[in-house]
Specification:
Layout (H helix, E strand, L loop, with lengths): L7 E4 L8 E6 L5 E6 L12 H4 L1 H5 L9 E3 L5 E3 L2 H19 L4 E5 L1 H4 L2 H14 L4 E3 L7 H9 L1 E2 L11 E5 L3 H4 L10 H11 L2 E5 L12 E3 L6 H15 L4 H7 E2 L1 H7 L5 H8 L3 H12 L11 E3 L1 H4 L4 H14 L23 E2 L1 E2 L28 H6 L8 E5 L3 H4 L3 H10 L2 E5 L5 H5 L2 E3 L16 H4 L4 E2 L17 H12 L4 E2 L2 E2 L8 H8 L7 H6 L4 E2 L8 E2 L8 E2 L3 H12 L3 H7 L4 E4 L15 H6 L5 E3 L1 H7 L6 E5 L4 E8 L7 E3 L46 E7 L8
Parallel strand pairs: 6-7, 6-16, 9-10, 9-13, 10-11, 12-24, 14-23, 16-17, 17-18, 25-29, 26-28
Antiparallel strand pairs: 1-2, 2-3, 4-5, 4-18, 8-15, 19-22, 20-21, 25-30, 27-28, 27-30
Bound molecules: ligand MGD (2 copies), iron/sulfur cluster (SF4) and molybdenum atom (MO).
The site of molybdenum atom (MO) has 2 residues, from loops.
């Protein structure tokens, strides 16, 4: 960059990588390209195609630049923002007056998580209205982790520090692609993996596909999808039988260890191996590498899971058993350990080496009208949202606000959910693109995109997602396109509340409802109790690992009676039920299904996002069905041929692609593709590329207890070749 034109630096907030980007401007000051930022101390030059395409996303000819209103005939027309907000507020007033505040719901999509002001404002706005109808992607993702925290308990000082790990186990997660695994750093994961291996850390990967991450593993188990509960029960049993667990830790912090042993009785190694389709030796090896002390020393390092483990059958049980591996082996930060990340944005507070007692909060609070689902972490269950929209009566959801999400595409039980969206009185979407959800909306409010507003990283999860005290103040580096009428996401909620006379309390601070705050003022509120003063955080727009004085984990309160509950009654019951069930694939074969469908993400797109951009569309024009080459031969098809995939709930046609990393008998397709029911896949509508795998999933049956999680992986499907398979082009 010449010195006349300062190179802009900000962070990508698409995923947890938070890669620092160096942005080049053209002579007019417009940002034209992005590259990774080699001088950033944490992200060290790493960036993926999604982040590198952000300049194109901001400048996309498809970007919505004015609020739109849908007319009864389906056409969208421009409306000035104030007019749109006036009308929306009026309609909301009427709905609340007639049907109560719970009739107004909010849905948090992934791009709301990564926008800190919006992330706080959406639930604050619902609270101001008095509505409990808060939904998010979490309950169609990994809310098994919430359930586990609430029924097993947690550890106040967090898991074993990453840098001290002898071993890390990944179950159904692929950090090298998703940058989203809770015991592994998301920043420059490839370097982190290399460095960790050099330090001597060993990796155990459990995945039906030899994933990018699995290639670096010391132990790789490639089981059938959907058998994680059995597999983990088997591992736990080996560890307890061999006495590799941490007896001292268990004596002090665990309740019910003997009951756990009893509950694990059915899971002997040969039975588990057979069921999961792995060898007894490999099971034993995984358990030994994870837990067997070496040179008289207990190992450190933890087990963590991802979507593969949290989207299958018995997913809450699976997550409970994942965390039980850490519990019985005592894989938590102990008194005297350095606190890996004391936090930058969050307040300084002591970390105590003690158990946080299980709360089972869902048993106590409000219950849903349909299904009787409780709430978790202040949220209702997205798996039950179709029910809440469809079912008449007091409390029926009649208005839905979607921020930074595209549930019409991402929601399990696609056709049912689309019909539900079509039936609401008011659907408002805040999104820069004409997504499937936007197309169904009464109003679309286009927001500023990330170059156009300043931001911070996540405060509340910083010690989970960052393994060092790092922060990058993401500066605003661009103005919205000339003539655009776009606003920050939070502004929509604040101005509706203002119009409705509902004062907003933002992160505990009552906002002035006459004068709109600025983005910076809101960020300052979020960082008002930060360990590092906000001004200092703000001064580090290039990113900094802060020298937060050497905090160490404090001893726990010896008087605390809190214990990990390894065998609550509902867990024992489910273990028993699962032990009696046939293997998933056996049951599937009995019902005439040929394969199990497994979830999987690809590097080039994030859920439903940005696949319409030229550079990305060239690389991934659609979402193929990946199959082992032997499976393709058996079906008599080749890469590029069309196949039909039918589940008990729906049918799609997809393009087959050979992938020798797949386990034979398993097919995987990524979600987030396809348009709306009835769309022709003619290649003309950029949002109609690929097929929507959620036509195969359902929210009518098979929901998990507690969190209403639909089953998205290990789904039995029947594959058939399609003759005359040419895709229309
Ligand atoms: N079958 C199946 N279904 C799944 C999954 C699966 O594995 N299998 N995964 C589930 C999971 S884990 C998740 S998290 C959900 C994801 O579900 P969603 O969060 O609903 O989907 P996304 O595509 O992540 O939505 C992001 C939206 O943000 C918009 N966007 C882009 N930039 C901006 C911006 O600057 N501001 C705003 N306001 N919006 C922006 C994009 O256009 C897009 O519409 O899908 C779930 N569905
Ligand atoms: N590039 C990219 N990154 C993303 C996203 C994206 O869409 N693209 N999405 C983001 C979101 S919203 C989320 S929630 C995270 C998710 O992050 P991850 O959970 O790490 O997601 P995946 O990369 O799909 O890895 C899931 C793995 O589970 C395996 N699997 C499937 N079924 C089973 C099973 O039954 N058992 C076991 N043991 N394994 C199974 C799959 O083969 C796959 O390798 O990623 C985030 N990061
Ligand atoms: S999407 Fe890519 S560039 Fe953006 S933070 Fe994630 S890994 Fe980094
Ligand atoms: Mo997710």
């Amino acid at each position: 960059m010449d010195n006349a034109q300062e190179e802009a630096v900000t962070s990508c907030r698409i995923c947890a990588g938070m890669c620092s980007l160096r942005l080049a401007r053209d002579a007019s000051g417009r940002i034209v390209s992005a590259r990774g930022d080699k001088s950033n101390p944490l992200t060290r030059g790493y960036a993926c195609i999604k982040g590198l395409q952000l300049p194109a996303a901001h400048a996309s000819p498809d970007r919505l630049l004015h609020p739109l209103k849908r007319l009864p005939d389906g056409r969208f027309v421009r409306v000035p923002l104030d007019e749109a907000l006036d009308e929306i507020a009026q309609r909301l007033q009427n709905l609340v007056a007639a049907h109560g505040p719970d009739s107004v719901a909010g849905f948090r999509g992934t791009m709301n998580y990564s926008n800190q002001t919006a992330n706080t404002m959406l639930p604050a706005w619902l609270s101001a209205l008095g509505s409990n109808s808060f939904y998010s992607t979490m309950t169609i993702d990994q809310s098994a982790k919430w359930v586990t925290f609430e029924r097993l308990g947690g550890w106040a000082a967090g898991r074993d520090p990453f840098l001290a790990a002898d071993v890390l186990m990944f179950i159904g997660t692929n950090p090298l692609v998703s940058l989203s695994t809770f015991n592994f750093p998301s920043q420059h994961p490839v370097r982190q993996m290399r460095d960790a291996i050099e330090r001597g850390t060993r990796f155990i990967v459990i995945d039906p596909r030899r994933s990018e991450t699995a290639r670096h593993a010391s132990v790789f188990l490639q089981p059938w999808p959907g058998e994680d509960a059995a597999l983990l029960a088997g591992l736990l049993r080996i560890i307890l039988d061999e006495g590799w667990h941490d007896t001292e830790f268990c004596a002090q912090h665990v309740h019910g260890l003997d009951d756990l042993r009893r509950a694990l009785m059915p899971f002997d190694v040969p039975a588990v191996a057979l069921r999961c389709g792995v060898s007894s030796e490999s099971l034993f090896e995984a358990a030994a590498v994870f837990a067997r002390p070496e040179n008289g020393r207990r190992k450190r390092g933890s087990a963590a899971s991802g979507t593969g483990a949290n989207m299958g059958p018995h997913s809450n049980l699976v997550e409970h058993l994942v965390e039980c591996l850490n519990v019985v082996c005592g894989r938590y930060a102990r008194a005297g350990d350095p606190v890996a990340n004391p936090g930058v944005l969050g307040p300084a507070y002591p970390r105590h080496a003690q158990v946080i007692a299980p709360q089972r909060s869902w048993e106590k609070g409000a219950k849903s009208r349909v299904g009787g689902w409780g709430m978790l972490f202040g949220q209702k269950m997205s798996g039950a949202l179709s029910d809440e929209i469809e079912t008449p009566g007091p409390g029926q959801v009649r208005a839905l606000f979607v921020d930074g999400g595209n549930p019409a595409s991402a929601m399990p039980g696609h056709e049912r959910f689309v019909a539900a969206l079509q039936s609401v009185d008011l659907l408002v979407t805040i999104d820069p693109f004409m997504t499937a959800t936007a197309r169904l909306s009464h109003f679309i409010i286009p927001p500023t995109m990330m170059f156009e507003h300043a931001d911070l990283g996540t405060r509340d999860y910083e010690s989970f997602v960052l393994h060092v005290p790092y922060s990058q103040y993401a500066r605003k580096v661009a103005e919205p396109p000339a003539g655009a009428e776009v606003v920050d996401d939070w502004f929509v909620f604040w101005s509706l509340a203002k119009r409705m006379g509902k004062p907003i309390v933002f992160d505990g601070v009552a906002l002035d409802m006459e004068r709109a705050p600025t983005q910076e003022e809101l960020l300052a509120i979020l960082a008002r109790n930060a360990s590092v003063p906000f001004e200092q955080i703000q001064a580090h727009h290039l990113g900094k690992i802060f020298d937060v004085a050497g905090a160490t984990v404090q001893p726990g309160d010896a008087a605390s009676a809190a214990r990990f509950q390894v065998v609550p009654q509902d867990v024992v019951q489910e273990l028993g039920t699962m032990a009696r069930e046939p293997a998933v694939r056996t049951q599937a074969a009995t019902e005439g299904f040929t394969h199990l469908l497994a979830v999987r993400r690809v590097r080039d797109v994030q859920n439903t996002m940005y696949r319409q951009l030229d550079a990305i569309r060239k690389r991934v024009p659609n979402n193929p069905a990946w199959l082992h080459p032997d499976d393709l031969s058996a079906l008599g098809v080749a890469t590029g041929d069309s196949i039909a995939i039918a589940s008990a709930h729906g049918r799609i046609e997809a393009i087959a692609e050979a992938d020798d990393s797949m386990r034979p008998g398993v097919v995987s397709i990524s979600h987030g593709w396809g348009g709306l029911p009835g769309d022709v896949q003619d290649g003309k509508d950029p949002h109609a590329g690929g097929v929507n795998v959620n036509r195969l999933t359902t929210t009518r049956t098979g929901l998990q207890t507690i969190n209403a999680m639909p089953q998205l992986t290990a789904l039995p499907v029947r594959l058939t070749p399609i003759q005359n398979h040419k895709q229309p082009s």
